[in-house]
Design a protein that fits this description.
Layout: H1 2-15, H2 27-30, H3 32-38, H4 44-47, E1 59-62, E2 66-70, E3 76-79, H5 81-91, H6 98-101, E4 103-104, E5 112-113, E6 119-127, H7 129-132, H8 142-159, E7 166-173, E8 178-187, E9 189-195, H9 198-201, H10 205-208, E10 220-226, E11 240-241, E12 250-251, E13 260-265, H11 276-307, H12 309-338, H13 341-357, H14 360-366, H15 369-396, H16 399-417, H17 419-438, H18 442-459, H19 466-476, H20 479-489, H21 495-501, H22 506-515, H23 517-532, H24 534-558, E14 573-578, E15 582-585, E16 588-590, E17 593-595, H25 596-602, H26 614-622, E18 636-641, E19 653-655, E20 661-668, E21 686-690, H27 691-701, E22 713-714
Parallel strand pairs: 12-22
Antiparallel strand pairs: 1-2, 1-6, 2-3, 3-10, 4-9, 5-9, 6-8, 7-8, 9-10, 10-11, 13-14, 13-19, 15-16, 17-18, 18-21, 19-20, 20-21
Helix pairs in contact: 11-12, 11-13, 11-15, 11-18, 15-18, 15-23, 15-24, 16-17, 16-22, 16-23, 18-19, 18-20, 19-20
Length: about 725
């Protein structure tokens, strides 16, 4: 068993496709041959074309952070349940709780407008590196370089032809060595079509999050509406369904181990080209600190949520969001260690150095890079730590201090721009205050505050504010006492007092806040940060950016035989891989697919994470799976493959070799969450809902089978092997 596991680890680079999130524009040049060898049955042009319709016309950035895809000629859009979650929550009321009960529109008139939700498509992209870097030289100071590039970009935008309804986006790639232009169009009239209840769409919730085997039906559906000409327009009752240039056919053929797969979407951020020192910083210093902070705040929230169902409702979304990154960092730091990321990086750097040393020209150009980068990361470390510590304890986990920071922006507007702007800002903040207080419980926040203050005092430096926090705590006899003092005397956690203050004149608001104990507390820490941390970061970060840019370029020269993909940056990418289980450690191996039987194994009646709706239990009992069953009569739920994905790929379509939809990406496996820093093909897997489960839930569970009529279902297309 042990031998097999090691063998797989060693052979993985040869058995499995390499890592990468590739640029659609460059697929033909960089990947087509490789993809065809792995099983691709269509051409790079079918996937991306700048003029003719192609698969990319069916893919959009959903609501600014996720991915969605169009699955009908009438603009029906599929994305994750967790991507539609906040829109669905906002449409829900106590009587019509779509989160709890799910929803299916019965016709166009019952599709519910989802204000603010957007879908951004890429019309075409272009390499504009030469223009963007015109008159830029390597000897320029970073700031001058950037302002030259900004000027160039503005000029490119002026010179680029676009339609009225289109927008232009220009982004740096390969750490600023290349620039690409995207012509985009963003639809703003999206309507909620339907979603399963949370007990399906969020099944397993936080316990199962980032973990395989998984049994979540993580999907929801919207419809894109356009004006009569088919262009983006603000919401209008008489807008019409959008007819895309291309939509995704859906395969009912199912998947088998070894099948070629692609994921097409908008991955947010990766850092695959860091030095070992920088990876060590993340895995050994920053992740552990942030995890420890969130450990404390999550435990406190959980304690209150368990005692009181009302608190539970108020904090469940906040808890889930804090827990999501917490769990990812935990997986990441463990994965980096277990799968020896530092050894791998160090070996890579040694090889780089050796090649550079052997060639006088390379040595002259790149000989100093790595030592200087390593040193800069060392120099930067304490300040990055301070920044993360400040933002985690004072902004992310602590509501009263985050509120103080946002109120401070009010005072700043007043100081800088006067009363008229103040009044405007005040009007802007007012609705946010309402939604803040709807889900705010001062007693929870007070307990979190005490814990955060204690951590800050213990783990940061005197000049970053630890001194001040220490003294304050001593003054009141301890951290809980300090928290009690602040929460009793501050207006910020008190809805009535804060709203009353909001009706006062700017002078009065500013004066009151400047004396407020919570505000003073936040301001003192923020001042310490601005004075003793921020300037250092501003000094070191540009130097790191410059060297990372040079290191990226150097790697592309030194490892000529290697193909490099640019780090994710929330732009459209395609990644490919194979359906494949994995073996994370000795004697443990995971299969590639889960089924409804597994949902029932996890079923805990009445549990908030693992309850299963009666109707789904009935369907399971009667094995009424229709055309969605596997050949051996089970209902597929989720599957994994070796596609290289990250946050932002949620909702991305998983495609088969012919570009048909086979699933919906929504997560990664626990052991592979380190893939943002160190992708390992033996271990890293993305998790997708099987599209057959999606259709089964719509049709058999939701009774919305009429939606399938507008889709294009394909069957029997896959050659039997
Ligand atoms: N881990 C996935 C992602 O990063 C899913 C998050 C939503 N699910 C949850 N249980 N919080 O977004
Ligand atoms: N759930 C993630 C998202 O919202 C995708 C999982 C990942 O980070 O790979 O984008």
């Amino acid at each position: 068993m042990k031998k097999n596991f090691l063998l797989l680890l060693l052979l993985a680079p040869f058995l499995l496709p390499a890592q990468g999130m590739w640029l659609p524009l460059l697929l033909e040049k960089q990947n087509e041959k490789d993809m065809k060898a792995l099983g691709l049955k269509i051409s790079a042009d079918d996937l991306y074309h700048g003029v003719d319709p192609s698969v990319k016309d069916a893919i959009c950035m959903f609501d600014g952070g996720c991915t969605g895809e169009v699955i009908s000629p009438d603009g029906l859009l599929l994305t994750n349940h967790h991507c539609g979650f906040s829109a669905i929550q906002q449409l829900s009321t106590l009587e019509n709780n779509y989160i709890e009960n799910g929803y299916w529109a019965t016709d166009r008139s019952t599709e519910l407008p989802a204000p603010g939700v957007t879908a951004m498509f890429v019309s075409r992209m272009e390499d504009v590196t030469a223009l963007a870097l015109q008159n830029v030289s390597e000897s320029m100071a970073e700031r001058d370089r950037q302002s030259q590039i900004d000027k160039n970009i503005a000029q490119i935008k002026v010179n680029t032809k676009k339609e009225k309804w289109e927008e232009l986006l220009i982004r740096p790639f390969y750490n600023g060595n290349q620039y690409f232009l995207f012509v985009t169009q963003t639809f703003k009239d999206l309507r909620f079509v339907g979603a399963p209840p949370s007990s399906i769409g969020k099944f397993g919730s936080d316990t199962d999050n980032w973990v395989w085997p998984r049994h979540t039906g993580d999907f929801s559906m919207f419809r894109i509406y356009a004006d009569k000409d088919g262009h983006p327009a603000p919401y209008q009752v008489d807008n019409v369904p959008y007819h895309p240039r291309q939509f995704l056919p859906i395969s009912l053929d199912g998947i088998e181990e070894g099948d070629f797969t692609m994921v097409y979407g908008f991955p947010g951020r990766t850092d695959e080209y860091l030095t070992a020192t920088a990876v060590a910083q993340t895995g050994e210093v920053l992740d552990p600190a942030k995890v420890a902070i969130r450990d404390r705040s999550l435990k406190i929230m959980d304690g209150f949520m368990r005692k009181d169902p009302a608190v539970k409702i108020a904090y469940v979304a906040k808890y889930a969001s804090i827990a999501n990154a917490w769990k990812k960092w935990l997986g990441e730091m463990q994965g980096l260690k277990t799968y020896k990321a530092l050894d791998i990086k160090n070996r890579y750097e040694a090889e780089f150095t050796q090649r550079v040393e052997q060639n006088a020209d390379l040595k002259y150009r790149f000989g100093n890079l790595l030592p200087r980068l390593r040193q800069l990361y060392k120099d930067q470390e304490p300040y990055i730590f301070a920044r993360d510590y400040y933002s985690e304890t004072c902004l992310r986990n602590n509501e009263i201090l985050a509120q103080a920071a946002s109120l401070n922006s009010l005072i700043e507007v007043f100081d800088k721009n006067g009363a008229v702007f103040f009044a405007q800002k005040q009007r802007d903040i007012a609705p946010a205050l309402n939604s803040f207080f709807k889900d705010y419980r001062p007693e929870v926040d007070e307990a979190v505050f005490a814990a955060m203050a204690e951590l800050y005092a213990q783990n940061t430096k005197p000049e970053w504010g630890a001194d001040f926090v220490q003294k304050e705590a001593a003054k009141y006899g301890g951290f809980p006492q300090l928290a009690a003092h602040i929460f009793q005397n501050s207006v910020i956690p008190n809805r009535e007092k804060l709203q009353a203050l909001f009706t006062e004149s700017p002078d009065k608001v500013a004066e009151t806040l400047r004396k407020d104990p919570a505000f003073v507390f936040w301001k003192t820490l923020n001042d310490a940060f601005q004075t003793n941390v921020q300037p250092k970061l501003q000094e070191i970060q540009p130097q790191i950016n410059l060297l990372q840019r040079q290191y990226m370029a150097a790697q592309m020269v030194v490892f000529k035989e290697k193909k490099f993909f640019p780090d994710a940056n929330s732009t459209l990418r395609l990644t490919y891989g194979k359906v494949r289980g994995f073996s994370p450690r000795d004697a443990v191996s995971y299969e590639y697919q889960t089924t409804l039987d597994g949902v029932m194994e996890k079923y805990i009646p009445g549990d908030y994470e693992f309850d299963v709706p009666q109707k789904l239990r009935d369907l399971w009992q009667s094995k009424d799976y229709g055309q969605y069953a596997t050949p051996d009569g089970r209902l597929p739920v989720a599957f994994i493959a070796s596609n290289h994905t990250t946050g932002g790929n949620s909702g991305s379509p998983a495609l088969d070799a012919r570009g048909n939809l086979i699933g919906l990406n929504f997560d990664r496996v626990w052991e592979g969450t380190m893939s943002d820093l160190n992708y390992n093909p033996a271990i890293c897997r993305n998790i997708m809902v099987d599209v057959r489960y999606v259709l089964f839930i719509v049709d058999k569970f939701g009774g919305a089978g009429y939606l399938l009529q507008e889709m294009k279902l394909v069957k029997g297309k896959k050659k039997k092997r």
